[in-house]
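Side project, low priority. Logging it here so it doesn't get lost.
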Amino acid sequence: MINQVYRLVATRQFEIAYKGVDLQANHIVVRPTYLSICAADQRYYTGSRNQEVMRKKLPMALIHEGIGVIAYDPAKEYRTGTPVVMVPTQPTQSDAVIGENYLRTSRFCSSGYDGFMQDCVFLPRDRVVPLFDGLNPHVAAFSELISVSVHALGRFARRSHSRREVLGVWGDGNLGFITALLLKTYYPDSHVAVFGKTEWKLENFSFADAVYRIDEIPAQVQVDHAFECVGGVGSQAAVNQIIDLIHPEGSIALLGVSEYPIEMNTRMILEKGLTVIGSSRSGRADFVETVELLKRHSNLVDYLQRLVGVVREVRTLQDITETFEVDLTSPWGKTVMKWAI
């Protein structure tokens, strides 16, 4: 079977590649329907990754957030047309201790391996999770990002102490919004406070118990545990502000990605006996939990719809380029492509 793959070949330049694929009994063919653009995709698109990385990973199809419908299942477990979310983490081995998303041998779509910008995506059977009827496809398109927060909260639950009266989230973007919303869902009796830079973005966090501008935090504010969802160069200031405001023996969950090393006040980490929890990507179990969570709590979907910033139908290579450019200028939320190419 010949499949069309829409690859980034250079900065801001997409081309069509034709790839021969052998249908395998343990693989499922998915036709993408809605794809969501991630900041990581934009770093490749704009060439803001270092040149050595760009040379190593391109050409490559972008996008690791997306849903589709079953086009072919040789085992007939799924009927044709079944809506599914695609899992981008593809482990090549298992480990009794290390999660699939942390194994160095695991592959990740759109990071050295082709992502979901294809006519059809060929996935191992366990790399799809069925969706339920009625789920807003624009929200479902960024299920992967939601699963990243689900994964981080699972690590937090296992590694932090039990005093969770005040939980702080640093970051007023997409990841901060999702993480704060899930914290309020998992820990409804906890006081969830959000710390951000932009007043109008903070206004979207109506479900939170408190919101603060990072330069206007009252002197008495402290947190038991904190979640850093800033990323980039801003993560350094966020982490060090967390260290100042967190109670002794609290935990700091790091979710934001920075291209360069950051400095943090390790002296106070030691003095306060803090636990730093790194968290990256997610695995199949997190996707299953994400879908079940959205099914159990329909109000979550209502809140998450606030993150749908732009939806554009894509039919040509030019449409792809224009959508990526629109996403760069979008001040809030996720850009979703209705994949009709």
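Brief comment: The longest strand covers residues 27-36.
Revisit when time allows.
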